[in-house]
Amino acid sequence: MLSLFQRKRVPPTAGTPPTSAIETPKGSMRPEPAASLLATPRRQKLLEHIWQRTSLSRRQFATLYLAPLERYAELVQQFPASENHHHAYPGGMLDHGLEIVAYALKLRQSYLLPAGVTPEAQAAQAEAWTAGTAYAALLHDIGKIAVDLHVEHADGSVWHPWHGPLRKPYRFRYRKEREYRLHSAATGLLYACLLDRDIFDWLSGYPDLWAALLYVLAGQYEHAGTLGELVVQADQASVAQELGGDPSKALVAPKHALQRKLLDGLRYLLKEAFKLNQAGPADGWLTQDGLWLVSKTVSDKLRAHLLSQGIDGIPASNTAVFNVLQDHGIVQPTPDGKAIWKATVTSDAGWSHAFTFLKLSPAMIWDAADRPAPFAGRVQLEEEQAVADGPHVEGIEAAPASTAPIASAATDTGVAALLDLLGDTAPPTAPETPSCPVAEAEPAPSTVPPPQMSLAPAQDRADAHGLPLETRLRAQTNPLRCCRGLPPLRYGHQQPGRRADQPA
């Protein structure tokens, strides 16, 4: 069974000291094996949730999911997911990777893939599309460790991820000259570090899935169809959860692949076109707590810039642009959930004027080293922050609040359970100097061992048709295509979200 994927483990080289025996110099971090990195209770719960979204035995799950996740853990070690945005703490990239896979597989359950084929064909490809969704989510940001980070060993030698997992103490910093979009292109350097050739052989047998997966991993979400939408929404949900936002809103937000284009456009305009921090009329002002951009100006110029780049799908009205920016978490909402803020700008020279603004986090636009100096004057919010509740400011377009529907998490027990899981144990807070983390002293060992995943095969595990899954899989000519040849799925005979082997 699954002999195609079975591979003998290479024994460790004689004389190589175990990780725990390696002395860690001051200012460096000690590399950890996957078992140690994934052993925390929260990560174990995420692994359990991921398994529950598949239709595999423990043995099959260990081959198709756990092995790539372990390789991912050993490769990203204690790297953060970003320098000063989401998951910006040691181990943040590993947490983000597990979260986005869990969210993506939850979302995938709402789709019959690929679209436009018979139910029999969808059933035959179901497990491949589920695995492809997990791989796309896990790999979407892996290129960051190749181009955004400078990693070196304690002796000063440089480490690159294609060298294999770290085996000696290391330290890292973010590259000041890094390009924001380069990590998507760099993902191609690391495919084979996480997925072996047998998995590639399997996935490449499904042309629609294979094409969508390659588009996602190249950062071309607009060509990846439903798979691209699943990854974008799962990414937004993980980011929202870590930043204290509402992940359930991200899970049901309109499915646009515009987030990267909108952010790239804003960064370009702020660098090349916008007038910032003027003592008189300007396009925006930067304060310690936010970037304030004049709403109508930013909407008009952003739309014009994106259209000039040949990018389609840009909303024609400013109100729709505001809604899209808010739906994608690019602009920060007012306390009453609206996109538009109302404030008065006053300079030290005495100039003052009221505007309607979009508020952004400066960390979304600039790295810490590149952030401009804040405005010398002040931006003072008025008592009524929503434009609709106050007088219209001459020359500035007022925009109503976003009307995008928000589904209640209570209506979807699967989403609610996942949100409870992710909120069960708060992730560590970011250190004061995330760009150069220093290994902390190890905590005292707990007397209560964390829950571990049992990888023993579930021989008696039955599928929805009443037969043990292992028995049905052995009957297939290709054991990987575990749904091929099964009768069409009959929805309604089993409660959504319940596995066939779970009690009612």
From TrEMBL:
InterPro entries: ICE_relaxase_PFGI-1, Unchr_helicase_relaxase_TraI. Residues 1-33, 423-463, 485-504 are annotated as: Disordered. It comes from Halopseudomonas yangmingensis. Residues 27-340 form the Uncharacterised domain. It holds the Pfam family TraI_2. NCBIfam families: ICE_TraI_Pfluor, MobH. Residues 1-10 have a biased composition (Basic residues). This is Integrating conjugative element relaxase, PFL_4751 family. Signal peptide: none annotated. Transmembrane segments: none annotated.
